[in-house]
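[[Encoded backbone]]
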Amino acid sequence: MLLNFVDRENELSGLNDLYQKERADLFVLYGRRRIGKTTLCKKFAEDKPHFYFLARVQDHALELERMKEVFSERFDTFIPDVKDIEGLFKEMLDKIDDKKKFVFIIDEFPYWIEEDRSILSEMQYIWDEILKDENIFLILTGSSVGMMESDVLDHKSPLYGRRTGQLKLTEIPVHKISEFLPKYSNEELIKTYGALGGVPFYLKEFDPEKDFFENIRDTFLNKLNILHEEAEILLREELRKPNIYFNIIKAMIDGATTLSEISSQSRVSITNVNKYLKVLERLEIIMREYPVTGSSKKKKFLYRITDNYFRFWLSFVYPYQGRIEENPDSVLMNIKSNYDRYMGPVFEEVCMDYIARHYQYQELGRWWYGDKEIDIVALDRNTIIFGECKWSKNKIGVSVLEDLKEKSKDVRWKNNSRKEKYILFSRSGFTKELIQHEHIELIDIMDIL
């Protein structure tokens, strides 16, 4: 398997199944930047007649001319001047062989929407009057998740009801990272997930022959590597006041989780901070998290960072940019000294992934009430699972189990009829006394991936 095409077999198979249907298809593919949408499209189209076009944010007349030139060069044909995109699609259809379904890919379609929203109505007309009865497979992709959901997929969109399929591409799961770094131990793989998440574009930057901290030095602490300033570039492309967003995320990294805490620590007024948080939610850098036994309709929620790359970059790169210029090794020492503390919430994510893969559940998440918190709670019918995760160099002892059982008494869910199960996750194993305990599952780092 190619290293740049890990864990996308199901998605590719799904696209190929759609392609085999005797009909025209309009497929919407979206997901955050660097997640692998273009790679998936090109892999899907490589053995099929296709035309790939990457949109830009510029005047539609210029885009029309550029698209005409790219198509003409790609197929060594002549297309006369056309006055609109409708005319261009008619000309392109006239030039292709319709004996085999033809794939049109318009990458980053939101760029066109951003330039002129009338493109949505134009594409509706093109689909309804030109394409839907042809032997074609049209793919519209976008990295602006919010815009794709509101302007392309929403019921108010001119394109609503036209699509024959859609897919939101997400990060590859932590247990698949070994396919990028096959020589890494489970501990190094989890550490890597803590710095890069499951973004294929970032994972390819790590050299599988170097250990984790060597790769951190050669990427994040190397001005020539894209990981050194990718977070800043992405936010500056998306936002007008990136420094405010940096300060908000940094406040969350430093422990702020509520609206008032984030406002106070980032020094953004309480009346304005909510609009910035909504933008970060739309970009899928943060999320609102509700206690697993609570309701999303209630106001009892916390904000949590979901993007590990941004979390790492704002923790260890952004505050030390001057020092990286002068002495990157001193910054690396700081990362080494503080990385175990940083890894606490990351390890919880990894353990949550384990539960999701190995247990049946209806709800899964964290639980908190006042000053009490449980890392993992999973609910299914009459069974409730309580999990605790420890990224520590010390073995877990009985005291951790006893503390978890005590906290579980405060979780109000079918208290009179539920069946309880306890699971402990440990980086460094368990004491002999704990191992002898019955009715508890112990998962160490060798099992977790």
In short: The chain has three domains: 9-168, 175-344, 359-448. The mean pLDDT is 93.
